[in-house]
Design goal:
Length: 381
């Protein structure tokens, strides 16, 4: 059956999720029309993408002009364009929040990869989405899995989020303390952007995902469990009130959740490369997470349960600490210590406005950078 092309924009098209989304779209060319592509500083790649996919608009955080294609002034401008049926939010970190809110205000559905948006302002984002009749379809493989499993949410008892465990799952705390940036970036299962890869090494990523799941599906933190599953075949599961457990399985590829999110509720063969075989996989392992070795998960549960601006504080402190680690200024383990310190200093605002969330974000980032500079000076003395 001939269907209308879905009009899509991708913000963060030059990143790991963005480039894989374009691979999906290339396979499903007759299903999509690209309205806008937006990236940050990799303007060469954005130029190549624009030449290949011919969007109506482009945006980059550096100056870029391409003849025949209009340049948008901001990500928000792209997300205000009501021509879009759906926007894939695939930027990394806090820059996802404002454009997502713009898209929601304009009634545009969202395929959401940027988990930080919900960590910072999940209550506001989800409320606005409900008010505007906007669908938020998760791209994160765990949440995409849960989205696929849920038939009647009122009968679901709990969510079970799987975690690969990252590169340090079977390494000692001592080895983790000595970890280099290269070791932290060597994720055994997924090839992703640097920020999420470091978060996956500390398991803060899982913590952020717990908060993301709380907002997307409306479950209390007591009803969201994490289990380590190194093969990354079971992408997450739900347990119904009667004890039935429904899990979503698949080979570890982000193409599948990206495609699911941007084509929902339809399904297509798309980019699937090979058929799933239980016999080839042979075994699936599960273990409890080690909260002592990976204390960032506990910190995220704590921030989530506290609510208000606590999760925005967690997100800002963690993001600044991750940048400092990537710059070689601090050790991997310091990320937890710094984030925990910022959380303990933070005076939580309950039911914050969006302006209070942005103010918290800026304030915590400034304090985190100051704290890191003091730590560096101490080590040098
Ligand atoms: N990668 C995964 O497998 C995966 C899985 C689940 C969830 N996620 C989530 O998806 C999001 C993206 O992750 P990723 O791994 O794709 O990150 P990434 O590879 O680092 O890509 C980030 C994208 O954001 C763009 N960007 C950065 N600063 C920008 C700015 N100021 N204005 C406009 N664009 C800007 C980057 O552009 P340039 O590169 O051109 O600077 C790039 O296109 C994150 O929130 C992550 O947690 C990722």
């Amino acid at each position: 059956m001939e269907t209308k092309k879905r009009k899509i924009s991708i913000i963060g098209s030059t990143g790991s999720i963005g480039t894989q989304a374009l691979e999906v779209i290339e396979k499903l060319q007759d299903k999509f029309e690209i309205i806008a592509l937006a990236g940050g500083s990799n303007i060469e790649l954005l130029r190549q993408q624009a030449e290949k996919f011919n969007p109506k608009f482009i945006y980059a955080s550096k100056p870029l002009t391409i003849s025949g294609i209009k340049t948008a002034d901001s990500l928000e401008e792209i997300c205000s364009n009501k021509e879009n049926d759906i926007i894939l939010v695939a930027v990394s970190g806090k820059i996802g929040l404002k454009p997502t809110l713009k898209a929601i205000e304009n009634g545009i559905d969202i395929a959401l990869a940027n988990k930080e948006t919900l960590v910072m302002a999940g209550d506001i984002v989800m409320k606005k989405a409900r008010e505007n009749g906007v669908k938020i379809i998760p791209v994160d493989s765990e949440h995409c899995a849960i989205h696929q499993c849920i038939k009647d949410i009122s009968q679901v008892e709990k969510l079970i989020i799987t975690a690969s465990g990252g590169p340090f799952l079977h390494k000692s705390v001592e080895e983790m303390k000595k970890a280099t940036v290269a070791q932290a970036l060597a994720h055994p299962r997924w090839h992703m952007g640097k920020k999420i890869t470091v978060d996956s090494a500390t398991l803060m990523n899982k913590g952020l995902e717990i908060i993301e799941a709380h907002h997307l599906f409306g479950f209390d933190y007591d009803k969201i469990d994490v289990v380590v599953h190194p093969q990354s075949i079971v992408h997450s599961a739900i347990e119904y009130v009667d004890g039935s457990v429904i899990a979503q399985l698949g080979l570890p590829s982000m193409h599948i959740p990206i495609q699911y999110a941007i084509t929902y509720p339809q399904r297509f063969e798309g980019i699937k490369s090979k058929s799933f075989s239980f016999a080839d996989i042979a075994r699936l392992d599960f273990e409890k997470p080690d909260f002592e070795k990976f204390p960032c998960i506990k910190l995220a549960y704590q921030a989530g349960r506290t609510g208000g601006t606590a999760t925005a504080c967690l997100n800002a402190a963690n993001e600044e600490a991750v940048f400092a680690f990537l710059d070689g200024k601090i050790k991997l383990y310091n990320i937890y210590e710094i984030t925990a310190e910022m959380m303990s200093q933070h005076r939580v605002i309950e039911n914050p406005t969006i302006d209070e969330i942005f103010a918290t974000d800026e304030d915590v980032r400034r304090k985190t950078r100051e704290h890191i500079n003091k730590l560096i000076q101490k080590v040098q003395l």
